[in-house]
């Protein structure tokens, strides 16, 4: 407990507050570390997410995804209601997606709708994670817009090309003649 510097005429409330607040200095983690997504203890990440107004939170996310979502919260709120906010929110989860708006579709789609073409190659896609993606997009999309999600599994064949070249050059070095 910290040294009590209250005057002798302090009220009971002031003494209790001084006693309770005196242990704040004994906490193992500083406030600065708690507010830093990289240094915040894992158990406190949901509280930090609440403090920076993360709209959609899922406890099933990995620690890296949670920290990335918290880091991107400011940028997402600055861009909220735009295609860029949807892309930023998905990038924080490690998801690559193409946003195709209604006027970009052929034939044209229903006005104020968009489609997400989610690439599932680098993401372990489960039903829970798919619902998490939908919640994340719903939280940051333009309020008037509706969306659909298409999960696309792209195959990328690996083509290996090998070339071997062997060349022999014989060089003779002679001493300089005088």
TrEMBL record:
One family name in Pfam for this protein: Tail_P2_I
NCBIfam families on file: tail_P2_I
Protein's recorded name: Phage tail protein I
Organism the protein comes from: Duganella rivi
């Amino acid at each position: 407990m910290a040294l009590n510097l209250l005057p002798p005429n302090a009220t009971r409330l002031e003494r209790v507050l001084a006693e309770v607040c005196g242990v704040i200095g004994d906490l193992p983690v500083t406030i600065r570390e708690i507010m830093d997504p990289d240094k915040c203890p894992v158990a406190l990440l949901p509280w930090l997410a609440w403090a920076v107004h993360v709209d959609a939170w899922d406890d099933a996310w990995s620690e890296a995804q949670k920290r990335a979502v918290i880091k991107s919260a400011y940028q997402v709120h600055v861009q909220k209601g735009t295609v860029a906010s949807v892309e930023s929110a998905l990038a924080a989860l490690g998801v690559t997606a193409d946003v195709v708006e209604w006027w970009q579709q052929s034939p044209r789609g229903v006005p104020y709708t968009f489609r997400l073409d989610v690439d599932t190659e680098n993401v372990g896609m489960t039903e829970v994670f798919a619902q998490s993606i939908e919640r994340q997009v719903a939280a940051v999309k333009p309020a008037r817009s509706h969306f659909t999600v298409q999960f696309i599994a792209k195959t990328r064949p690996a083509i290996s090309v090998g070339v071997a070249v062997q060349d022999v050059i014989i060089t003779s070095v002679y001493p300089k003649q005088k």
